[in-house]
Amino acid sequence: xxxxxVAIQKSGRLSDRSLGVLKRCGLRxxxxxxxxFWFGQDFPVDLLLVRDxxxxxxxLDGVCELGIVGENIAREVMLERNGxxxxxxxxxxxxxxxxxxLAVPEDLEIGSLQELxxxxxxxxxxxLTRALLGEQGVTVQAVELSGSVEIAPGLGTADxxxxxxxxxxxxxxxxLRELEVLFRSQAALYSPSTPLPDEKQQLLDRLLARLxxxxxxxx
Length: 219
Ligand code: PRT
Ligand code: ZN
Prior knowledge:
alpha/beta, D-Maltodextrin-Binding Protein, domain 2, 2 domains, 7-stranded mixed beta sheet, 12 strands, elongated, binds phosphoribosyl ATP, binds zinc ion, cytoplasm, amino-acid biosynthesis, ATP-binding, histidine biosynthesis, magnesium
């Protein structure tokens, strides 16, 4: 009997909502605390709880068939690893909304993205930032940082940042000004773009039909 594996974030901004939407699809899991693998009861879908950054790679490597992750991370990993392809967004889930924005120090007199040509931009999303700026004809030096991106201009290690923003309070606290929104993101259900065996595809179709019902009821 075929089973599907879904990877979700173990603990973070997307965890509760990810688990919640799967439960509302009627999935039940047997699990013990701190275990990273939750066995699906009633319906043959199991859960893997991991760092969000690992989810796109796990899908590309065939470790699981489904994953819930921010579009920002899915796009970054696809660009980094796979020429921008390899994962299919099956359904946007309506939570985890944020934007990837280019921000500059408040006192820097800069009015357009074009003025950032050749400048250093600190970001946790170097491939996505380069691609989005490239679409606008702007080439920058991406300075990759895994966290605390917003302090880079103050430290003098970058001229600007490209970072996720939701309320904007982190930017304000660091005297940064949002110059332009590069990309709007939310949590989405992804699968590898390669076809699944028939039995798994049938399971996936059943799950997607339930998901559609759940999401439409919530709208
Ligand atoms: O441990 P793990 O690697 O799994 O988690 P993580 O710490 O990398 O990720 P987490 O839980 O912080 O975020 C998971 C996902 O939530 C992101 O990939 C986005 O898709 C989504 N999301 C939504 C956000 C935000 N909103 C957000 N505001 N991710 C991060 N932020 C950060 C942002 O980087 C900045 O530092 O919040 C700060 C800005 O918030 P405001 O409200 O001050 O603008
Ligand atoms: Zn992460």
